[in-house]
Design goal:
seven-stranded antiparallel beta sheet; alpha+beta; single chain; 20 strands; globular
Length: 523
């Protein structure tokens, strides 16, 4: 499955070029907007046209563009990445430091770079794990007016969203920071929410999907030095935890190893390692007097459902399990189907899709078999073929002076994410074998438009596994129009995730909560 959802690529904000001037202040009325892709609220001219996420154009012949976006890189790195689009090669001196809404903005002004008649205003700031920037590109004649009418008001209006923005303000329950230790000694940190009353309460452990997730279920980027929230990532566990705790359940959610306040190396862990971590979370709940040890269950999403299957195969003190988008065939089949479904949802060319599937059919079996050299050779062959289609002019623009060196460097970079223990485990593991032995009550929920765990492939296999287990308490539901994150979706493609509002599709929370309440007794 998709181990990581890449942060939205930095958009080409504008090309420095000449433009036709007009009355800049004509009909500029600023209106508020919320951008769930880049996770902030702000203002934009009402008559300007949105070109793509975070980018607006004045609907005239003039080259006047407004970008309001966020990135997971540090401010200095974002600024350097933008320099070529500004038509300059060194960072200019700031013209102003501006305070607004608790943010400290550094303001830059670039007038007529490279002999053009363009004017560029840029503002950059950061909060937490995200860097926010606002850029206005206009012509010199309009610069002063547009700076005052559009750019500075946009800077003053931007307010970052947080996970809490997806939640109600009142919380009639307590939240406790907890820590626990996995079997290999890894220290993990999380949050335990407890309903009102002394208990003992029924409880669930939330187990997140593939990729580095924090305790709120939001996908993050992990580097050697820091953890950064992926822009627009839906904090589904924060929302689910809030809802379930209000319904009477204690809920434990935690940062995966190597994420947030948890120790360990995320990139060197397999699904089996993550299962051991989740099992340690169960042990924490079972040791508490305010938790009903006979009513502790799992709610597991995506790869987390694989972890739940592994846990259930080795211990008999789990009372129930809710599997959200559970995989039920081996990882190789899952990856091939996922790639096909994502390409279809993104309306990719059929020939390109067939070529990619053919490549994966050669590449991943080698990874699964531990043939690292063979897998790398397959990748290099693919990249060499793609490089052969580039013209000399394109290679020159990319700064390529030695094609063989370029191909080797690209191969090394792209292969890095596959050269670890996670992929072989995933490709070889078939969770249906473990699900076939599960006899505790099970709720499985699929999303109709899920392109990562296609319900057409996985639901029949999951139901067959439950039949082999002779499990008499199994409920399987497919929610209409839901994606892998159980958001209301249009295509279900991962490329759509950050464009959707951070909330569950209608029926999801009720489906999960009603089933749970039917399987526990509240104090």
């Amino acid at each position: 499955m998709l181990k990581r959802i890449a942060a939205a690529a930095l958009l080409t904000v504008f090309v420095v070029m000449g433009a036709l001037a007009q009355e800049a202040s004509d009909d500029i009325i600023l209106v508020p907007f919320t951008d769930f892709n880049y996770t902030f609220t702000g203002v934009v001219p009402s008559s300007w046209v949105q070109v793509t996420a975070g980018l607006w154009s004045r609907d005239t012949g003039a080259q006047t563009l407004l970008a309001q976006q966020a990135r997971t890189e540090a401010p200095d790195a974002v600024l350097v990445a933008l320099l070529p689009q500004f038509g300059i090669d060194t960072v200019p001196e700031p013209v102003e430091i501006r305070e607004a809404n608790g943010l400290t903005w550094t303001i830059y002004e670039i007038i007529a770079p490279a002999g053009s008649d363009a004017a560029i205003d840029a503002a950059i700031t950061s909060r937490g794990t995200l860097t926010y920037f606002i850029i206005l590109a206009s012509v010199v004649e309009e610069h002063d007016t547009l700076k005052q009418a559009v750019f500075l008001p946009a800077v003053d209006a931007l307010v970052p969203l947080t996970s809490a923005d997806a939640l109600p303000e009142d919380t009639p329950y307590t939240a406790e920071d907890v820590s626990f230790t996995s079997a290999d000694g890894t220290e993990l940190s999380g949050t335990l929410t407890l309903p009102e009353g002394d208990g003992p309460h029924p409880a669930v452990v939330l187990i997140s999907s593939s990729g580095p997730h924090n305790r709120d279920g939001a996908l993050v980027g992990v580097t050697e030095d820091e953890t950064r929230l992926i822009s627009g990532s839906f904090p589904m566990f924060a929302v689910l935890s809030d809802h379930l705790t209000r319904a009477g359940f204690a809920v434990l959610r935690y940062d995966e190893r190597g994420v947030g306040q948890s120790r360990g190396d995320h990139d060197q862990a397999t699904t089996g390692d993550f299962a051991v971590d989740a099992s340690a979370a169960v042990d924490l709940l079972l040791a508490r007097d305010d938790i009903d040890s006979a009513q502790v269950g799992l709610i597991a999403h995506g790869e987390g459902a694989n972890e739940a299957a592994i846990i259930l195969s080795s211990r008999d003190d789990i009372a129930f399990v809710v599997a959200l988008a559970p995989q039920a065939v081996d990882g190789l089949q899952t990856i091939i189907r996922q790639t096909e479904r994502v390409y279809q949802a993104d309306e990719q060319d059929a020939a390109a899709t067939a070529e990619q599937l053919e490549f994966l059919g050669r590449f991943f079996p080698r990874i699964a078999a531990g043939d690292i050299a063979g897998a790398r050779a397959e990748l290099e062959l693919l990249i060499r073929g793609q490089a052969a289609e580039l013209t000399p002019e394109q290679l020159e623009q990319m700064g390529v002076t030695d094609l063989d060196v370029f191909i080797r460097e690209v191969t090394d970079s792209q292969f890095l994410s596959f050269d670890g223990p996670w992929w072989p485990f995933l490709l070889n593991y078939n969770p249906a074998e473990d699900w076939s032995a599960v006899t505790v009550p099970v709720l499985a929920v699929y999303g109709e438009l899920d392109t990562q765990i296609d319900p057409a492939l996985h639901r029949p296999a999951f139901e067959a596994a439950m039949a082999r287990a002779h499990n008499l308490d199994v409920t399987v539901v497919t929610l209409p129009a839901a994606n892998h994150m159980f958001q209301l979706a249009g295509t279900g493609s991962p490329s759509e995730y950050t464009l959707l509002q951070p909330m569950f599709v209608d029926g999801f929370l009720d489906t999960v909560t009603d089933w749970l309440l039917a399987h526990v007794e509240l104090p």
